[in-house]
Amino acid sequence: xxxxxxxxxxxxxxxxxxxxxxxxxxxxxxxxxxxxxxxxxxxxxxxxxxxxxxxxxxxxxxxxxxxxxxxxxxxxxxxxxxxxxxxxxxxxxxxxxxxxxxxxxxxxxxxxxxxxxxxxxxxxxxxxxxxxxxxxxxxxxxxxxxxxxxxxxxxxxxxxxxxxxxxxxxxxxxxxxxxxxxxxxxxxxxxxxxxxxxxxxxxxxxxxxxxxxxxxxxxxxxxxxxxxxxxxxxxxxxxxxxxxxxxxxxxxxxxxxxxxxxxxxxxxxxxxxxxxxxxxxxxxxxxxxxxxxxxxxxxxxxxxxxxxxxxxxxxxxxxxxxxxxxxxxxxxxxxxxxxxxxxxxxxxxxxxxxxxxxxxxxxxxxxxxxxxxxxxxxxxxxxxxxxxxxxxxxxxxxxxxxxxxxxxxxxxxxxx
Length: 416
Hints:
The chain is an alpha/beta fold. The chain is 54% helix and 12% strand. A 6-stranded parallel β-sheet has the order 7-6-5-8-9-10, with helices on both faces. It is elongated, with a radius of gyration of 29 Å.
């Protein structure tokens, strides 16, 4: 759809919720799977949204886009998730204009991540951008913004050590297991689910334990077998889940199911069991803790584990913020120039039209009229006048929308 009227009167917003105010249960309500994202993008087009990007991870669900009012984007999210407007108002955030731009920069560069310096989100932003572009929901502003955020992310990763050291949810999971389960190398570990966090956890476990004690189960067995072949671990059928849980000392749940897949009814335990739920929404029913010997730990608890690595990363925040400011300022300067450029072009055309009218009058009136000299002088005057207006509009203290309206009104410029 052409940018048309909706963009002319629309503002750029970032709306969503994250781990900062929304717990795992609430984030689960607003989480969007691939079908939900597809439906949301299609609905956005139908409702006249010109440009929009949607991301949904275990730590956040966000929409970046143009709207006349942020409720248009909030409605899209609620229509395609299990969350309500009332839920959204309790835990969510809405950013507009420069604040929305700054928010995307901080998210995309890992400064807003639950684990500081986690750059996983930038690949999710890239994927979201591709999905929106395939739906023709990307305008020049959003494309330039995403590219600027990618540029900042790369530069921060290259020029600072904010992502140095091993720290992630999967790393925290393994660390928790080693600190809380004695003789882990001789214990049975069952991994249920092959999502990214599950795969990473499995890889970390393989590095530090005996492969023969790790079993992998997934609803789709061929996905599990691909990982098992790479990591040399055992694969069992989904039908054997209950039996394998009985044999396990540690159960790591990392599925993408929308409802709990593990609860007390399938636990028939003969020994203590540590359960790590790395899923959003939660995939382990809290009722498992009613069984003696069961210890349940959720991803949010693991993410709160701090160590020297995270403390060291914090030292690099100022350097990362300087890089963000530099690239963000370039982007905002581009958007500002892009905003007033049509007005400057229209002003120049208007002044040239006035000039042509006056030169025609002087040609008829003066027999010795020096047309070449008059053309040269008037062109220089027009250039100086337009430069004055352009410099005014570039000034950071200028209220650009108000100034553009006055220029268009005074010179009776047509709105394009």
